[in-house]
Specification:
36% helix; alpha/beta; seven-stranded parallel beta sheet; WWE_SEC23-DDH2; triacylglycerol lipase activity; seven-stranded antiparallel beta sheet
């Protein structure tokens, strides 16, 4: 218990005694507590506040679930536990008094027992109206209550403490504040309880997801925070009317399962790793080798099983904690994670296939002849070869790969024929009820890819692909190498009619300088050179340097197409702004639209017509006929040196407002809720 005695203010605080005259006597009111949790990162320890809603819940013991039910707090233990992912429990504290040193960036909460002693001394000073009280604590600290607005703590010389960074700071006082409302701390807004949609996010290579070497958990937390802010600004009215709640984003971690003790691969790799340039080799082993692991049947199976089982586990757990949830689920894959999802989704079975597997009824071929089947597969050149061996469809279904190889049929057509015939002829030996599909794999063929839609097989590693217990609404790929991998695997074209069996929407989102990202649309529509769709800036218009660049491009085109009127039309082109940024003219027609019509009527090859033709081009069924490739707008500083920002561009998606807004727009468009343009 600290001792209390009147004290003369130290010289360092004498200048503050004038504040005594300003301190009016006010009745004592008990301090209002606020709950904080501790975050430890490397050697840094910080205390972060819960939202006011969560703090009130903990204070009144209404519930122990906080932060959108992603954490449980054991109040008696003063511990906070993660629900959906593995994370060491963190300390929580009921905070009333705070301190900050000269070089501290934020106030830190005192331990609860220390705060109780400070509060009792403060209460006595207020009720007796006696100040300049000195409190000596057994640990050596001295706190002096000069007046209600000036309370300081002094560290005795020679006492070592974590907050002291140099000997000269031993005598520097700490500023002491009472109550969370008197300190500069940003208390987060509470999250809406209603969840409209769930998004599972899969990381790429390595344990770190950004340049700050943060985990997938931390990066998804950032993305969730960005989405909550955008919902408040771009769906404000819908939130106020109760149409919109929030979107939950949950991380899916497969790296720890691959590199953990279960596989022992890290130990095996370490034995053959050279001792030189150890840091670079460690980075290679821990990060870049994931690409090679995914192309190994053994470790690819581990990766795919982990992702699928995590999807199913998280889906079940979320529904248990949110029994009222009736929404749908989407998936996001970053970098290699997007390729994992692509391979996984191409090997899912739709409801009709699942019913056939459960009933055990054979899926017989229809009345198509062998000739019709080969024509459908684009392999009519092999009709004579098969007929010379008296093969019909029934006998062809009994052939093995080696049989067709002996007939001189190449590998690609062999796989194409066998997969198609077996899928149409042989029953799938599942017989399992739907609830046991956790990691069930069809045993008739390794891959369930529909070869009707691909020129050749898509070259997936020969493994057994597990089934998901839900059908994703949309698949979003961030900085994805899918197009490159498909091309390297030998796939030249994706049939426009192809779609994922259980997922009907697909977006390929990338930064223009991302060195890992590749396009998808040219593999579907190769006859037209289409620019990707430009993702709008979240504030409603293009970045200024891109507007200037477009204006200069239009000016150059006008000079070329209309030499006689170049001066007039070029100036109109340069002064032109995006339609959404200009007020409508008479009759609802904007000035920009008039100028565009005039320019089009006078130019021989109007660019507007080309744009209209581009919009009318069907992009296949992979995204329901809509565009697939979406490119972010680079920042002005990034345009100065695209090589310098290349790596950062591949890791930018987790904090990108434009990316998050595109996801929210797709999700809420499907729910019939329109986006609102925020007030500037």
């Amino acid at each position: 218990v600290p001792s209390q005695s009147p004290a003369t203010s130290p010289s360092s605080a004498s200048s503050f005694e004038m504040l005594d005259m300003e301190s009016a006597h006010a009745p004592y009111q008990e301090v209002q507590p606020h709950w904080f949790f501790c975050r430890r990162a490397d050697d840094n320890t910080s205390w972060l506040p819960f939202s006011r809603e969560d703090s009130d819940k903990l204070e009144n013991a209404f519930t122990n679930t906080v932060e959108g039910q992603r954490y449980d707090v054991h109040v008696k233990e003063r511990k906070r536990y993660a629900v959906y992912w593995e994370q060491a429990p963190s300390e929580v504290r009921r905070c009333t008094w705070f301190y900050k040193g000269d070089k501290d960036t934020r106030f830190m909460p005192y331990p609860e027992d220390f705060s109780k002693d400070l509060e009792e001394a403060y209460r006595k000073s207020v009720t007796s109206d006696e100040w300049k009280k000195k409190l000596d604590f057994p640990t050596g600290e001295t706190v002096i209550l000069h007046n209600p607005k000036l309370i300081m703590q002094y560290q005795p010389i020679g006492l070592q403490d974590d907050w002291v960074s140099s000997p000269s700071e031993h005598t520097r006082p700490r500023t002491v504040k009472r109550g969370v409302d008197n300190i500069s701390v940003e208390i987060p807004d509470g999250e809406p309880e209603k969840v409209d949609h769930v998004v599972f996010m899969v990381h790429g290579i390595g344990p770190a997801c950004d340049l700050r070497f943060r985990s997938i958990i931390q990066c998804v937390n950032d993305f969730r925070s960005v989405s909550l802010s955008l919902l408040a600004s771009h769906y404000k009215r819908a939130q106020q009317e109760g149409q919109v709640g929030r979107v939950e984003f949950l991380p899916v971690n497969w790296h720890s399962a691959l590199h953990g003790d279960a596989t022992g691969v890290d130990e095996d790799i370490q034995r053959i790793t050279l001792p030189s340039i150890s840091r670079l080799r460690h980075f290679t082993n821990d990060t870049l080798l994931d690409l090679f692991f995914y192309n190994s049947p053994t470790y690819c199976q581990t990766i795919v099983d982990t992702v699928a089982s995590e999807f199913n586990r998280l889906h079940v757990l979320f529904k248990q904690r949110h029994p009222e949830f009736s929404g749908t689920v989407s998936v996001v894959g970053h970098s290699l994670g997007s390729l994992i999802l692509f391979d996984l989704l191409t090997n899912q079975r739709d409801e009709s296939q699942a019913r056939q597997g459960i009933s055990g009824e054979p899926c017989h071929l229809n009345c198509n002849t062998l000739e019709q089947t080969l024509n459908r597969l684009g392999l009519q050149q092999y009709l004579d070869v098969l007929q010379n061996e008296n093969l019909d469809l029934e006998s062809l279904a009994l052939c093995r790969d080696s049989d067709l190889k002996d007939l001189g049929i190449p590998l690609g057509p062999r796989k194409k024929i066998l997969n198609y015939v077996r899928r149409k002829w042989l029953p799938e030996s599942s017989g399992l009820p739907p609830q046991q599909f956790h990691l069930h794999r069809p045993q008739s063929v390794t891959s369930a890819v529909d070869y009707e839609y691909f020129d050749v097989g898509i070259g997936q590693v020969s493994i057994d692909y597990p089934q998901l217990e839900f059908h994703p609404q949309t698949f979003f790929a961030f900085g994805s190498p899918i197009g490159m991998f498909l091309t390297v695997r030998g796939l030249k074209r994706i049939d426009p009619n192809y779609t994922f069996p259980t997922c009907k929407s697909f977006y390929n989102i990338y930064h223009p300088y991302d060195p890992v990202a590749y396009r998808i649309e040219p593999m579907i529509v190769s006859e037209v050179d289409l620019e990707p769709m430009l993702i709008p800036h979240h504030k409603g218009r293009k970045r200024m340097h891109l507007e200037l660049k477009d204006s200069l491009t239009r000016m150059s085109m006008d000079l070329k197409n209309n030499v006689l009127g170049s001066l007039r039309t070029a100036w109109q082109s340069f002064a032109r702004l995006p339609v959404a940024a200009l007020p409508p003219g008479e009759g609802g027609e904007t000035t920009t639209e008039k100028t565009l019509e005039e320019t089009v009527s006078k130019s021989k090859e109007p660019p507007l017509v080309e744009e209209r033709e581009h919009r009318e081009i069907k992009m296949g069924m992979l995204n329901g006929g809509r565009r697939i490739d979406y490119v972010l707008q680079e920042k002005p500083i990034e345009s100065f040196n695209e090589y310098l920002f290349a790596i950062q561009s591949h890791l930018c998606y987790w904090e990108s407002e434009d990316t998050a807004l595109l996801l929210l727009k797709e999700i809420y468009d499907n729910l019939g809720v329109a986006i609102e343009q925020p007030q500037q």
